[in-house]
Amino acid sequence: MQMAKVLGTVVSTQKEPTLRGSKFLLLQFINEEGSPVPGYEVAADCVGAGIDEWVLVTRGSAARIAPGSENRPIDALVVGIIDTVNVENRLIYSKKDDPYG
Q1: Higher pLDDT, 21 or 83
Q2: HEC assignment per residue over the chain
Q3: Pairing mode, if any, of strands 76-81 and 36-45?
């Protein structure tokens, strides 16, 4: 899994039939300090994440084995909303302290 920040949403009215009803998010990958790293992803969302939230993203075959995702052409799936990140006993991120979260 990777950490990412939700930048926005992606809307597609024409899509593969098994993707109907799916919410898509535009994600920016972040490192353990919360700084952006190269790369972004459009991911399906199964947890109801919102803009500016930090999330956990699974990619590849793991994204297709989540309940409700089987047999859908998904390469990335938001599987969790991050509450806190601690690195070496230092709080890096706390959703409750995030003015946007």
Answers
A1: 83
A2: CEEEEEEEEECCCCCCHHHCCCEEEEEEEECCCCCEEEEEEEEEECCCCCCCCEEEEEEHHHHHCCCCCCCCCCCEEEEEECCEEEECCEEEEEHHHCCCC
A3: parallel
DSSP conformational letter for 97: G
d(CA 76, CA 94): 24
Of 77, 87, 89, 84, the closest CA to residue 53 belongs to: 84
So what's the pLDDT on residue 78?
96
Give the max Cα distance, the chain.
47
pLDDT at position 100 is 62
**Rounded distance, CA 27 to CA 87, Å?**
22
d(CA 31, CA 28): 10
Which tokens sit at 82? 């991050």
**Amino acid in the structure at residue 98:** D
Q: Report the predicted TM-score, pTM, of the whole model to 2 decimal places.
A: 0.87
